[in-house]
Amino acid sequence: MTVRAFILSAGLLALAACGRSQPGLDQTGDRPDLPDQRQTLLPPMKIATPAGWGNEKPTAPAGFTVTAFATGLAIPRQMLVLPNGDILVAEGSGGSAPALRPKDVIATQIKAMGKTSVKGGNRITLLRDADGDGRAELRSALITGLNAPYGLALVEGQLYVATQDALLRFPYREGETRITTPGVEVTRLPSRINHHWTKSLAAGPDGSKLYVGIGSNSNVGERGMAVEEDRAVIWEVDRQSGMHRTYASGIRNPTALAVEPQTRRLWAVVNERDELGPQLVPDYMTAVRPGAFYGWPYSYWG
Question: At 13, is the secondary structure helix, strand, or coil?
Answer without folding.
Answer: helix
